[in-house]
Amino acid sequence: MINQHSDNLLNLQLKKTSVEDYKFGWFDWFCLWYPPGWLILFNRHWQHYHKDPDGWNWLEYGLFLIPCGFYLALFIRWLRLGCRSPRRQIGEFDPNYQKAFRDEIIAPIVKYYFRGELHKIENLPQTGSMIVTMNHAGMCFPWDFLTLGYLLSKARGWLVQPIAGVSLFDHHWIAWWLPPGWSKVLGGVRAELNDFKTVMQERKILLYAPEGLRGPRKGWVKRYQLERFDLSFLQLSQRYQISILPVVCIGNENLHPWTLNIRKLQRLFNLPFLPISPLMPLFILFPSMGVWAMRSRLRYFIQPLCTTELDGEETKRAEGYRKAQQLREKLQSQINQLLSLKIKSEQQVQKT
């Protein structure tokens, strides 16, 4: 089994730490089922394993839970820090913490809230590095990515590193919401060519959205339509001789339903996307809900491995673009078939 030795090593390293495992207690369950509390879950878990004097405290957590209390908590924290922003730290990927966060926070969320399921597991390889590609949607925090990473780790013991938009690392709002270096420590890889190449050279398992930000940005109307695929993952797959594992997700379109993206507002606030929906009044009252998503059933259908062979340096880019769109059409066909089966199943349930 891939990474079995490294997973055993991680277990030994975690046992050596002087910090006891994080226990998911009654307050955590409350935060799970009360949407403004999700940001508390992330920060409390981080503070259990890391010293974070600039982080949120209990008074501020309590304010998260009342309408507009987040704004007061933000002001109190700003005063407490001497009228400055939290210190930014450049973290490094920590497999130990990724495993702890996965088992202690992500596990109950995936099991009881998103009800994540892996289908066609027979298509999962046992060994080897690869690029796992997935249709990305939801116009919200990337829960479809985190859920798939968790399910793959449980099925094969893999350490999966997702490609993440640069804004998830650098945006000044992130410095206030999430712990310093949080995305990098959990294994996030910046969506930049140099970082992409580094991970490929290390022969790791990378989770990649070929649609890029066009996926979650497309909104509710086009929720089942795949956008144009980038070709960088195909080129790097060819260069480093790494297979591609396509995955189709059904259910991630419901993570933030009825949304549309207003590009002018998105650019004004320098955000990757700005979801406008009937839920927006709640987000204005409770900004800590920014990492929350609607309850959904996330089902992942594993497709057979595919390899890329691009002939000739001069035609490589044009051929790569063609192959990327061929893969998009193939996955679009799979999505259409799965949706058709879902509709038929729902109709049969209604008849009975």
From TrEMBL:
Residues 130-252 form the Phospholipid/glycerol acyltransferase domain. Residues 321-348 form a coiled coil. The keyword Nucleus does not apply. InterPro entries: Plipid/glycerol_acylTrfase (IPR002123). Keywords: Acyltransferase, Coiled coil, Membrane, Transferase, Transmembrane, Transmembrane helix. SUPFAM superfamilies: Glycerol-3-phosphate (1)-acyltransferase. One of its GO terms (molecular function) is acyltransferase activity. The chain crosses the membrane at residues 24-41, 61-79, 273-294. It comes from the Bacteria. Pfam families: Acyltransferase. This is Glycerol acyltransferase. The lineage of its organism: Bacteria, Bacillati, Cyanobacteriota, Cyanophyceae, Nostocales.
